[in-house]
Amino acid sequence: MEKTMQEKNARAKKMMLWFAMISMTMTFAGLTSAYVVSSSRADWLSSFELPTQFLYSTLLILTSSITFFLGKKALEKGKLALQKIFLWATLALTILFIYFQFTGFSEIISQGYYFTGAASSITTSFIYVLVLLHLAHVFGGLIVLSIVIIQTYRNAYSPDQKLGYELAELFWHFLDFLWIYLYVFVTVYS
């Protein structure tokens, strides 16, 4: 009976996370659709390229997704010390991701494009919105990752008890996929 209740609880939590991720996906789908529609405007920058820092951040977030996954594999094998190493690596990669996002913004600003005002363009304003909204979700992901690290040190996870870790990992992979989509979309569509 208790096993069935735990399974129902796990299914409900996973379903809630899927609904949240679908909602976030719809938000970004709407924004990228608006990006496409707006690209026909006369003031659209047709030759704008994303700074290289965004490519570096893409590689970093992809790597962080791999380290998060490897942490789960270590957990499943009962290798808790290795799991902790992978979690800390994920955190370090995420901090580097955020750093390169902001240095990418600095590069856009050094090119003379701002979010709003006379020195802004509709093109770069969309890029600011897309990237900053994704960063807001990454900060949420950092909170989730921090909780997973704390719970790991509290020995809350085991090969048989890993629901919280799995939910965090699923959300992390979603953030990774979302950023890769945004990066490829803006790179190809610019």
> Which word captures the global form?
elongated
Sheet with most strands: none
Q: What portion of the residues fall into strands of 2 or more residues?
A: under 5%
Summing up helix and strand content along with how strands pair, one would put the structural category as mainly alpha
Model description:
The protein is an all-alpha fold and 190 residues long. The protein has a single domain (2-38, 50-189), classed as Four Helix Bundle (Hemerythrin (Met), subunit A). The chain has 5 helices and no strands. It has helices spanning 2-38, 52-76, 80-110, 122-153, 163-189. Helix 1 (2-38) runs antiparallel to helix 4 and helix 1 (2-38) packs parallel to helix 5 (163-189). The longest helix is centred in the N-terminal third of the chain and has 37 residues, at 2-38. The radius of gyration is 19 Å and the shape is elongated.
Task: Write a concise synopsis of the structure shown.
The protein has 190 residues and is an all-alpha fold. It has five helices and no strands.
What topology emerges from the helices and strands here?
Blueprint: H1 2-38, H2 52-76, H3 80-110, H4 122-153, H5 163-189
For this entry, give a set of tags:
mainly alpha, 190 residues, single chain, 0% strand, 80% helix
